[in-house]
Structures are given as structure tokens and as C-alpha cells.
Write a structure and sequence with these properties.
about 110 residues
């Protein structure tokens, strides 16, 4: 790459590498187990006490060239939280996930 105001033969950088032709990438949620908050809400007449684990989630991006088996892992830091009905990290999955907190709405009604 030559400077526009440089003499024609003066070159500051040159390289034959043209970059990868194709990249593959996958995006995963990554649970951060160390800063998880485990609490037990008080029991009510209709619901017994249960343990709730609030776990921070970061985005994990696995990226690599299509022609190579080497994969680089990139993380974003905490982007949100998920809640689970278990104290044990090995049981944090779809079956123990609690619904998101938020305003309750009735399907089909606007307003």
C-alpha cells in the first residue's frame, strides 16, 4: 500500500495474504456458574418453597475458517440472566428453566 503523496516506487506495506474465502461461526449461550445467585422464595398456600438460581449468561461465538479445523472462541461478557429451579449447575437446562419475569398478558387481547 503506497501513500497517495509518496513517490511512485516508495511502498510502506505489502503482503500476499488475501484473507480466508469463507468463515463459519456458531453463537451459543454460555452460563456463568461462578457469579450465580441462589435463593429460595418463601412458600405460599398454593406453591411450596423452591430454590431459584439466577445465572448470568454471556454470548459465546465460535468462529473459524472453513478450510481449517482451528476454532477461535470469543465471549461478550454478561448479556442477560436465566432462572432455574435447581441449586446444582449440572441440572440447569430446559427442563428446570423458569419463565422470564415480566408483565403478564392474556394471549389474543390487546390493550
Amino acid at each position: 500500500m503506497a501513500r497517495p503523496d509518496a513517490p511512485e516506487r516508495e511502498v510502506y506495506f505489502t503482503d500476499t495474504w488475501r484473507g480466508p474465502r469463507q468463515m463459519h461461526g456458531l453463537l451459543y449461550p454460555n452460563l456463568q456458574k461462578d457469579p450465580a445467585e441462589v435463593t429460595g422464595p418463601s412458600a405460599t398456600a398454593k406453591r411450596p418453597s423452591q430454590v431459584v438460581a439466577t445465572v448470568p449468561v454471556e454470548a459465546l461465538f465460535a468462529i473459524g475458517r472453513a478450510t481449517s479445523s482451528a476454532i477461535d472462541l470469543l465471549t461478550t461478557g454478561a448479556v442477560g440472566t436465566r432462572r432455574y429451579r435447581s441449586r446444582n449447575p449440572s441440572q440447569w437446562n430446559v427442563g428446570t428453566a423458569l419463565p422470564k419475569r415480566g408483565p403478564r398478558t392474556t394471549p389474543g387481547k390487546r390493550g
